[in-house]
Design goal:
Two copies of one chain form a homodimer. With 99 residues, chain A is of the alpha+beta class. The first copy, chain A, is built from three helices and four strands. Chain A has helices at residues 14-29, 65-72, 75-83; strands at 2-8, 37-45, 56-62, 92-98. Chain A has a four-stranded antiparallel β-sheet. In chain A, helix 1 packs antiparallel against helix 3 (75-83). The model of chain A has no long low-confidence stretch (mean pLDDT 97). At the A-B interface, strand 1, strand 2, helix 2 and strand 4 of A face strand 1, strand 2, helix 2 and strand 4 of B.
Chain lengths: 99, 99
Amino acid sequence: MVKLVVMYGHPKDPEAFEAYYSETHLPIAAKIKGLSKVEFTKFVGTPDGGKPIHYRMAELYFESLEELQNQMATPEGQAAVKDIPNFATGGVDVMIGEV
Amino acid sequence: MVKLVVMYGHPKDPEAFEAYYSETHLPIAAKIKGLSKVEFTKFVGTPDGGKPIHYRMAELYFESLEELQNQMATPEGQAAVKDIPNFATGGVDVMIGEV
């Protein structure tokens, strides 16, 4: 199994991020085909009580690296990728991981 | 569900990291109680063919934030935390996330 890991930095306006993320971005991303599982994480702290370095993480699981690459290259995959700059005002790191 | 997310930077010596991680660190971390699930990820690339910013990620799932905090405060939890500097030569970010 592989996953696309999207790490979001802290946005300039968290309320605006949350509204756009849930109402606009996730419906666009939901059209990506071939997903085995998705998991959305909101970071709430660190073990020593500090502020987490990242704000949110989205994990999109696929059966294989080839499937991930094929699906992310489709119009649906590209639409989700191209939408990220519309709300990710704290920056974003996107990585492919083997689980 | 909550998870402790450990993001490792690229180590100075990946072979030494992998050996220590599998032979020493994971057996120490396996003694942590109350885990609902664990997932280990090795980053292999980015969608545009670049080098991923992080090297590895470990995710430790617990039923609740209280359970996470209680278990990480035990001798078993603290032993795992204190072992991290012994091999994480590329640095580490540890965050708590709500799933």
